[in-house]
Amino acid sequence: MCGIVGYVGKRNAEEVIIDGLSKLEYRGYDSAGIAISQGKDTIAYAKKKGRLSMLEDYLKEEPILGHVGIGHTRWATHGEPSDSNSHPHLNEKETIAVVHNGIIENYMEIKEMLISEGYVFKSETDTEVIVHLIDKFYKGNLIEAVYSAIKKLRGAYALGVIAANHPNELVAVRKESPLIVGLGEDEFFIASDVPAILKYTRNVYYLENGEVVHIIDNTLTIYDEKKNKVNKELKVIDWDIEAASKGGYDHFMLKEIYDQPQAIKETLLRRLDKNRIICLDDIKMTKEQLEDITKVYIVACGTAYNAGLIGKYAIEKLAKVPVEVDIASEFRYSDPFMDEKTLLIVVSQSGETADTLAAMKLAKSRGARVLAITNVVGSSVSREAQDVFYTWAGPEIAVASTKAYTAQLVAFYMIALDFALKRSTITEDRYSELINQIEGLSSLVTQILEKKEDILNIVKDIKDTTSAFYLGRGVDYMTAQEAALKLKEISYIYTEAFAAGELKHGTIALVEEGTPIFCVVTQDDLVEKMISNIKEVKARGAFVIAIAKEGNTEIAKVADDTIYIPKTDNLLMPILSVVPTQLVAYYASLERGNDVDKPRNLAKSVTVE
Ligand code: F6R
């Protein structure tokens, strides 16, 4: 996790770095720090526990001037959030400063070695070994010292390094953790992600693993692991800073919930040809290769995993291939059977999730083909995969994933339809019907969003509960799992999802007078069974809120409250049924006075295993 920003140019580095860090707070926000070269053989720095605003307040009183610097916003991995554990970390003489995103796996052994050589550690972080290693190898040449230091490191790191003796220089390195370089006019930026520098430039280089960046004054050179110069293709970012800002909404999460109609449209329409056939440009698998696939795994974490559950349902139903879904951190250690007839589909909004990346590497090493569904162009996941499906949901900033999830569902439906057509497991009529229905989802989501006041009123009734449940059957149970994750992660209400028929096998013991139970009821053939389950929990005092298809009057007779959603094909209902649950989570968080976009203990991009 963590976000890093660096600057070399004529502007006030403090301003550029703080502004950049404010765009990266989604990567971590438990402490922040900045270091700026002072030109007279010194580095000035400030580090503060807490949100970036703590550092900003401090810098208002004690500004740090200068034109070359690095900054960091942290999500703790080693050592609690504190001033001393915040980055940048400096060597004892305070002549070298380092910011780091990632994890150094062998830091304990390096630390012991350095301590035996007389180095004194001031923090509990793994990062501190890096700055002492650079110090140890420093013989007057900063980039050489960095090369020597990184040879000793095992793990993931994106680094920014400055040194007092090199007041016009910045060295940066990327291995496994993301890092980009931005090019302005006579100025350079480094950052963990594009929004940090978009205010200043759209021209960026995406660094590959092992690349080392050397910036001195007006010169930028990029080297590979073996110190050969690398010529990279400059990419021009074609989305706007507006796309990465709140656009008038109170929170990023609300904006992103409202972005969904557009995200659904973008993800689908740009890939339909004039005959309304899906064209998946970045999926290069041939019809023959597809026909050869005997097994599909879908692997991901959190919300992306929940999208995978529905992906399985869609692929099995339409393309008739067996699919297994697994959590990335479990999949890696389960010794899964894979060969060249296996297709691994990974799903990752950020494209940087460490567990997901590790699962991909394992699958590739066993000969499986890897298809990535990701929202971030140029992300690690997209580069590791043979085939990519980009969800064009736009940047997702709120920690709680919403529009990325619905765009992932659209991606799965499209992949399932494409596979089905190529494998001849779907009729042309059914194919066209589903394409039309997917296209229609966008305006149906808008209709649901118009009911936000009703949902707020329901939430007001249940906001003080300590626990809640989501129930569903079939595909509604999968929606329930995503809904429960969303509610617990931002409202801190203990929420569990259950297959409605399973509740009576133990968990129903937890139902008390007034326990809120949300029941997702969108599958026509399961309505009667769900009504029985609703009666069971009502009989034990539950307060039932149903999420049901318009026209289902039977549900309203048994539930205490009903949120009606428009109808579409049963298979596609998860895209609609999840929307009210996102609003339930949003309003519950708001009503309970939480920080909606930055829930406690969490970070957006989980780049540690
Ligand atoms: C929950 C949430 C997380 C992520 C998970 C995977 O709202 O956002 O559960 O879905 O950390 O992240 P990505 O999709 O970036 O791999």
Question: What would you note in describing this structure?
Answer:
The chain is α/β, with parallel strands linked by helices. Helix content is 36%, strand content 23%. The protein has 19 helices and 24 strands. The chain has an 8-stranded antiparallel sheet with strand order 3-2-4-1-10-9-11-14, covered by helices on one side. A 6-stranded antiparallel sheet has the order 5-6-7-8-12-13. The protein has a 5-stranded parallel sheet with strand order 16-15-17-18-19, sandwiched between helices. Helix 4 crosses helix 5, helix 9 packs antiparallel against helix 16 and helix 16 runs parallel beside helix 19. Fructose -6-phosphate binds next to helix 9 and helix 16.
Task: Give me some keywords for this one.
609 residues, alpha/beta, 8-stranded antiparallel β-sheet, 6-stranded antiparallel β-sheet, 19 helices, 24 strands, 36% helix, binds fructose -6-phosphate
How much helicity do the residues have? 25-40%
DSSP strand tally: 24
**Which residues sit in consecutive blocks of at least 5 with pLDDT less than 50?**
none
Shape category: globular
Strand content: 15-25%
**Count of individual helical segments:** 19
What class do helices, strands and sheet pairing give?
alpha/beta
Q: What is the CA-based Rg, rounded? A: 25 Å
Query: What gap, in angstroms, lies between the N and C termini?
Result: 10 Å
The biggest beta sheet reads: 8 strands, antiparallel
Mean pLDDT: 94
How is the largest sheet built, in terms of strand order? 3-2-4-1-10-9-11-14
